[in-house]
Amino acid sequence: MTQTGYKQFCPVAMAAEILCTRWTMVLLRELVAGSTRFNDLRRGVPRMSSALLSKRLKELEAAGIITRQVSPSSKQDVEYTLTEAGRDVRSVVESVGLWGQRWVETKPSLDNLDVGLLMWDMRRNLKPDLDAKARKVIEFDYCDLPASQKHWWLIIEPDGSVDLCSVDPGFEIDLMVTVDLRTMTSIWMGLSKVSDALADQSLNLDGESALAQSMQKWLGLSPFAPEPKRV
Q1: Strands 66-71 and 151-156: what pairing?
Q2: 80 class by beta-carbon count within 10 Å (0-12 exposed, 13-18 middle, 19+ buried)
Q3: Which end of the chain is more exposed for a tag (fewer CB within 10 A), N or C?
Q4: pLDDT category, 105, cuts 50, 70, 90?
Q5: 132, pLDDT greater than 80
Q6: Using alpha carbons only, what angle is made at residue 202 by residues 196 and 204, rounded to the nearest 5 degrees?
Q7: Among 72, 103, 134, where does a domain finish?
Q8: Average of pLDDT values for 110-137?
Q9: Are residues 80 and 138 in the same domain?
Q10: Is residue 224 part of a domain?
Q11: Would 164 be classed as within a structural domain?
């Protein structure tokens, strides 16, 4: 995939030429997590330029890791699907993530804060088993962010589908979560718990008591959160 590869027959070197170019592993994380459309992939890698994203997708397609499928009804409706080789890379992505959770120090992780990415990942991993017969709306108010970034809404429908809004959807709020971005990121990563943040008052919950009391249960944590830190 590159003109200046490692020039080694070793399978590690050959795989690294494909998987270890800049942004590729993070992009694979998004594909493995289920994102298939360009705009959804962009939300998962918000600091990656559209041009580089297009380039990496073409490289992964050329390597036989993904396929590109265009809808017969609309040429702009494109989906990127993992091939057998792409599905097989899941274990590689998971192993890298588990290693990072175990051995990368906490402080550097929490220096890389991104509210949009955090909320996107929370939406994707939410566990909406709330026995809800009606829509539930949870607003997050990030008290340390500017007005343009501080308000986010998770909308949980009775069928279990979850939507994310950064503009007020106009629905009645069932639970208001007031928190700073570092605290919420720490909870999402499994480095702290909802109860810890409530105890030190870095997190405040206002609204439906059942939602508030079960937040740790329904909150969409990182898939690596159960892995304990070793540093």
Answers
A1: unpaired
A2: buried
A3: C
A4: confident
A5: no
A6: 95
A7: 103
A8: 87
A9: no
A10: no
A11: yes
Position 164 pLDDT exceeds 70: yes
Q: Which two tokens stand for residue 192?
A: 């702290």
Q: Residue 152 sits in which domain range?
A: 112-218
pTM for this entry: 0.87
**For residue 97, what are its two tokens?**
């993530």
Q: What is the identity of the amino acid at 133?
A: K
In the 3-class helix/strand/coil scheme, how is the chain assigned residue by residue?
A: CCCCCCCCCCHHHHHHHHHCCCCHHHHHHHHHHCCCCHHHHHHHCCCCCHHHHHHHHHHHHHCCCEEEEEECCEEEEEEEEECHHHHHCHHHHHHHHHHHHHHCCHHHHHCCCCHHHHHHHHHHHCCCCCCCCCCEEEEEEECCCCHHHHEEEEEECCCCCEEEECCCCCCCCCEEEEECHHHHHHHHCCCCCHHHHHHCCCEEEEECHHHHHCHHHHCCCCCCCCCCCCC
- Using the structure block, give the residue that is written with the tokens 């890379």: 89
